[in-house]
Amino acid sequence: MAAIDQGTTSSRCIVFAPDGSVTGADQREHRQYYPQPGWVEHDAEEIWANVQAVVSAAVERAGLTPDGLAAIGITNQRETTLLWDAQTGSPAGRAIVWQDTRTDRLVAELAGAAGQDRFRDRCGLPLATYFSAPKLAWMLDSDPDLRRRAEAGELRFGTMDSWLIYKLTGRHVTDVTNASRTMLMNLSTLDWDDELLAAFGLPRALLPQILPSAHVYGEARGLGGVPVASALGDQQAALFGQTCFTAGEAKCTYGTGSFLLLHTGERAVPSKRGLVTTVAYQLAGQPAAYALEGSIAVTGALVQWLRDNLGVIRTAAEVNELAATVPDSGGCVIVPAFSGLFAPHWRPDARGVIAGLTGYVTKAHLARAALEATAWQVRDVMDVMAAESTVDLAQLKVDGGMTASELLMQFQADVLDVPVVRPTVAETTCLGAAYAAGLAVGFWPDLDALRAHWRPDRTWVPAMSAADRERGHRRWGKAVERTLGWTD
Dihedrals φ, ψ of 279, to 5°? Predict the structure, then answer.
């Protein structure tokens, strides 16, 4: 069973055995384009070339040929927006990445007097630069020829799952998890919403067909006709890979940003305090499962910033060694609101701050403050999630690159006051896509079979006093306040 993970900075493929263990893998980075401040773009053709290469290499390393695969699943960076020609399949320009903030004025105009929750009751999302619909509207509004071609049915829109499924099978489809991140799908009907399309000025002919997450979309041309049998946005795939199949179970993925998802069952729980209501997954022939999500824009990216922009560390892994040389952050707090604040604040006017600086603070304190910033942002989301779901979590399942930092994971358990558990198979995003594809083709029989594969690797238990926890959280809150209102 193979899974393609088309991420923000790279594409990879992992091949899994029936017990969920990894038998082959490969990964390639792609270029990030920053044509203007706040703009982030990707070359979809470069990504497609990389995907073909990593699939071939991963299958070979697993000792297989493509026809030895039961199916292929796809997981992807969400919200990243692409247009391509319906006849030639050529991209109509670079993809606009989820981090991109060029639509801030458009978002403000659409919000108007109704505010950022204007469409939340239909799509579960606040108006924000993060989601696909404003990006797609900006593309058509800024180029009259693209608008003409879109109206004439000559273009296709898709997030990266749609692009890869199209290139593999020739079909123009998406799944419910990715569709739920566009601001164009009605959460109740699981179909495109005419009122939302009209508000953004988008023709329905642009849009892919919405299908379940575990579903045979078609056969992969050039790979021996292997079924392409799942698609899930990366965070929903991680929830699935962590086997959070029951309401009340939650996971947090720590990557470029961090994403906390809580399974809420077959009911979409509306949020009034800055969370996102989203589809968790849908198995073929079954009702959709929903989730509450808190999206944090900058966590691992802050460590990269310390490395690339400030030169505080030479490699990302060094941040842990440096941070461990001091017992705390020395009173220093970093709030990395590089592109505004996401959940639970949703303040595009915020910008990053380093607060509490004194002559005592060293680069080691900065390194520790960078790790602590991730944990405090997750705490802010968890507090709101617990209040709105009326669920007190027994534990938090974690995955992603930053879980290699034992210092961060211990601090996370301390500030949440719940155990933090990392699974044996850390590649939960790819694993979730593989699990869903396997269910669609009968490679695995049911969810219970998948639960049986999950094993804990390491558990961190809270060790911080309640007084220290709340003192630190108050200081964090003061720093967050100082980020607000920076841009007009």
Answer: -80, 130
Give the pLDDT of residue 378: 96
Residue 340 pairs in a beta bridge with: 338
- Torsion angle, alpha carbons of 456, 467, 351, 141, to 10: 50
Rounded distance, CA 261 to CA 294, Å? 7
What is the Rg, in whole angstroms, of the alpha carbon atoms belonging to the chain?
21
* 345 vs 334: CA distance, rounded Å: 16
* Beta strands 72-76; 185-186: pairing state: unpaired
**Phi and psi of 320, rounded to 5°?**
-70, -45
Torsion over CA: 246, 247, 250, 255 (sign): positive
The Cα 471–Cα 144 span in angstroms is 54
**Which stretches in the chain have pLDDT values below 50?**
none
420: helix, coil or strand?
strand
434 token code pair: 């593989």
Place of tokens 């659409």: 110
Taking a C-beta distance cutoff of 8 angstroms, is the pair 452, 20 a contact? no
Q: What is the pLDDT of residue 297?
A: 87
Q: Which tokens go with 462?
A: 């809270």
Which pLDDT does position 160 carry in this prediction? 97
The amino acid present at 42, given as its one-letter code, is: H
Q: CA torsion 324→421→131→202, rounded to 10°?
A: 160
Burial grade of 95 (CB within 10 A; 0-12, 13-18, 19 or more)? buried
367-371-374 Cα angle (round to 5): 145
Give yes or no for a contact between 268 and 189, defined as CB atoms under 8 angstroms apart.
Answer: no
d(CA 407, CA 179): 36
Two tokens at 84? 């391509």
Pairing type for strands 353-355 and 226-233 reads unpaired
Contact yes or no for 231/165 (Cβ under 8 A): yes
What does the pLDDT read at residue 364? 96
pLDDT score at 342:
86
For residue 83, which of 152, 154, 5 has the smallest C-alpha distance? Answer: 154
Whether the Cβ atoms of residue 80 and residue 95 lie closer than 8 Å to each other: yes
Read off the tokens for 346: 């949703």
- Percentage with pLDDT > 70 across the chain: 100
pLDDT for 315 equals 87
Q: CA–CA separation, 26 vs 15, rounded Å?
A: 9
The predicted structure's pLDDT at residue 272: 85
Exposed, middle or buried: residue 275 (CB in 10 Å: 0-12, 13-18, 19+)?
Answer: buried
* Integer angstrom CA distances of residue 294 from 184, 436, 468: 19, 23, 25
Helix (H) or strand (E) holding 260: strand 258-265
Contact between 186 and 192 under an 8 Å Cβ cutoff? The reply is yes
Query: One-letter amino acid identity for 406?
Result: E
